[in-house]
Structure formats: C-alpha cells, structure tokens
Amino acid sequence: MRRHEKMQDETIVQTVQEGDAVSTPPAAEPASETSVLQAEVELLKGERDQLLDRLARLQAEFDNARKREAKERNDALDRGVTRAVEPFLGVMDNFHLALKSDGTVEQLRTGVELILKQMEDALKGLNVQAVEAVGAQFDPRIHEALGSIETKEFPDHQVLEEIRRGYRIREKLLRPAFVRIAVNPGQVAE
C-alpha cells in the first residue's frame, strides 16, 4: 500500500508540475510588451486630452461668470445712480426756468423757496435727512464747531448757529453740520 501511495503522490506532483508549466506564460516577447506600453501611453494621452479639454471649459465658464458678475455689478450701480439722480432732474428744470424768468425779486425768491422744498423732498425720498443743529446740544459725532459765541443766555455747548447743514442717510452721517456753539462762562466755572 505504501508503494501505491508513493506512486500516486508522484503522479500528483508530476501533474501539478505539468499544469504549472502549461499555466505559466511563455517568456514575454519584446514586441508584445511594447504594444502594451504603447496602448497604455495612448490611453494616458486620451485621459490627458480629456482633462485639458475640461480645464479649458472650466476656465471659459469662470471667465464668463466673472464678466457676467462685472456687468451685473455695473447694471446695479447704474440703477442706483438713476434712482438717485431722477428726483433731481425736476429740480434742475426748475432752476433753469427760474434763471430764464423776468419776474420780480420777490417772485424769484418764492420760486427758489419752492425749488428748495422740491430738493428737500427728493432727498427725503432717498432717506437723506438734515442733521439737527440749532437749539441742539453740541455732538462732535454729527457737528463740527467752527467757532463759539460767549453768552449767558444759552447753556454751554448749545448750537446757536448753523453755518452749513449736515446730512445723514438713515443712521450713517454723510457730512457733519458746521456750527457755532454757545460758551457760557457761568456754567464752565461750575
């Protein structure tokens, strides 16, 4: 029995060896290896070309988006300027009419007062308001003192005179009011 087992083992070993010999590819030929490498190079070139094409498209999309954003920004700016200028065109027309008129000084004054009212209404439509000045307490955030007037009639640092009107848009100061303020020596000493 041992002999039989030994022969069987030898047959299995020989079959495995023959099978290995059959399954093992023959030595690679240089020509087929070159063709495999060339195919791989062509595949990589194709992938590269696809990536370059995709990059070019993305760059074009980015440039178009940038140009579109710049145009939209300019259009929005133009709409804002139009909205701001439009109310003042009527004011300009009325100034031209006033300059052409041959009325009296009193008529001219009345016309200028009406134009001023029209101008104030146009500013109000844009949320622009005058800064409170005469009679208010001096506030360096909204007033700029150009001088002082010594007095005992008014409290110290009260605005007595407005030289140039200040304006704000909502809560943001556009320009401070130029004012003269009271200086009360009796209150300063206290």
Explain how this protein is built.
The structure is a single chain. By secondary structure, the protein is α+β, with helices and mostly antiparallel strands. It has 2 domains: 31-126, GrpE nucleotide exchange factor, coiled-coil domain (Hemagglutinin Ectodomain, Chain B, Alpha-Beta Complex), CATH 3.90.20; 128-190, Head domain of nucleotide exchange factor GrpE (Nucleotide Exchange Factor Grpe, Chain A, domain 2). It is built from 4 helices and 6 strands. It has helices at residues 2-23, 30-100, 105-125, 185-189; strands at residues 128-130, 143-150, 159-164, 167-169, 172-175, 177-183. The strands form 2 sheets. A 3-stranded antiparallel sheet has the order 1-4-5. Helix 2 packs antiparallel against helix 3. It is elongated and about 110 Å long. It starts with a helix and ends with a helix. Residues 15-26 have low confidence and may be disordered.
